[in-house]
Write a structure and sequence with these properties.
about 60 residues, mainly beta, SH3 type barrels, five-stranded antiparallel beta sheet, Malate dehydrogenase
């Protein structure tokens, strides 16, 4: 993905897990994401993120 395709609050896939976009740096094509499992925030290159339009809160958990 590219930084221009991201929005704050958007759910994305990063290394086969779900994360929320917290902040975006279009000049460096990076984003800060927060893991939904441990709430850890990391700065990543946008090329490492995968868009998953069907993601929404709780969809990564089963009943």
């Amino acid at each position: 993905m590219q930084a221009r395709d991201l929005k704050r609050g958007m759910w994305v896939e990063y290394h086969h897990s779900v994360a929320e976009v917290v902040d975006i740096d279009p000049d460096n094509n990076t984003a800060i994401i927060e893991s939904t499992t441990d709430h850890r925030r990391i700065n990543v290159n946008c090329n490492d993120l995968a868009d998953q339009p069907q993601l929404h809160t709780g969809c990564d958990h089963y009943y």
